[in-house]
Design goal:
73% of the residues lie in helices and 0% in strands. It has helices spanning 14-33, 40-47, 51-57, 61-89, 94-111, 113-123, 131-154, 164-185, 191-205.
Length: 210
C-alpha cells in the first residue's frame, strides 16, 4: 500500500482488502487528474481488479468517493480522539491534549497527503452529491476538538471568552492548511519542526496567560 496516498484500514476479509485497493486507486487518480476526468475503468485498472468489482463494492464512482471521504475523515477523527485520550491518561492539561491532537493531525497528513489535499478541496465545493456527508464527517472531527476546548473552559484552564465552535474549526483548519503548505512548499522541514511551530501558536493564542 502506498501510505502517502490513501488512508489504510485494519479490517479483515477479502472484500475489505478489495475496497481498500479501490480507495487507494481512486484517491491517487483523482488527485492526479480530477474527479470528472477519472473513470471507473481507470480505477479498476489501477486497483488491479475487474470493472465489475468496482460496482460490486460501490454503486457508482460518486458513491466510492463519498465512502472514501467518510473513511478517511473517520480515520482522522479517531486519531485525534486517541491523541486526546492518551494525553488525559498521562495527566496532561487540555492544552496538552490540543497539542497532542495537532501532532496527530500532522502525522495523519504526512501519511496521507493526497487524501488531505482532496478533502480540503472538496470542502470548498458546493455542487457535489456527497456535500452533506462531507459536512457531517467534518463536524465529527471538529467535535473532538470542541469537547477538549469545552472541558478546558469548564476546568478554568482556558479563557471563557473562547468561541468554542469557531476556535475548534480554526485549529483543525490551521493544521490542514499548514500541513499542506509544508508538504507542497517546505518539504525539507521535519514533522517535529512543523509541530513545534504550531505548538507555539497554540500556546500563545489559545491558552493565553493561564
Amino acid at each position: 500500500m502506498e501510505s502517502s496516498n490513501a488512508p489504510g484500514g485494519t479490517g479483515g476479509g477479502r472484500r475489505e482488502a478489495t475496497r481498500q485497493k479501490l480507495y487507494e486507486a481512486a484517491v491517487t487518480l483523482i488527485a492526479e487528474q480530477g474527479f470528472s476526468a477519472t473513470t471507473v475503468d481507470e480505477i479498476a485498472e489501477r486497483a488491479g481488479v475487474a470493472k465489475g468489482t468496482v460496482y460490486y463494492n460501490f454503486a457508482s464512482k460518486s458513491v466510492l468517493f463519498e465512502e472514501l471521504l467518510r473513511h478517511g475523515v473517520g480515520l482522522l477523527t479517531a486519531s485525534l480522539r486517541e491523541a486526546a485520550d492518551r494525553s488525559a491518561e498521562g495527566g496532561g492539561s487540555r492544552v496538552d491534549a490540543l497539542d497532542a491532537m495537532i501532532r496527530a493531525g500532522l502525522v495523519f497528513i504526512d501519511r496521507y497527503p493526497s487524501f488531505t489535499q482532496l478533502y480540503v478541496a472538496e470542502l470548498w465545493r458546493t455542487n457535489r452529491a456527497w456535500q452533506s456527508t462531507l459536512m457531517v464527517v467534518r463536524q465529527e472531527a471538529v467535535a473532538v476538538v470542541e469537547k477538549v476546548l469545552r472541558e478546558g473552559v469548564e476546568a478554568d484552564e482556558l479563557s471563557d471568552e473562547i468561541d468554542i465552535g469557531l476556535t475548534a474549526s480554526a485549529l483543525v483548519g490551521m493544521v490542514l492548511v499548514a500541513a499542506l503548505d509544508w508538504k507542497a512548499f517546505q518539504p525539507e522541514r521535519s514533522l517535529d519542526d512543523v509541530h513545534a511551530a504550531l505548538s507555539r501558536l497554540l500556546q500563545g493564542r489559545v491558552s493565553g496567560n493561564r
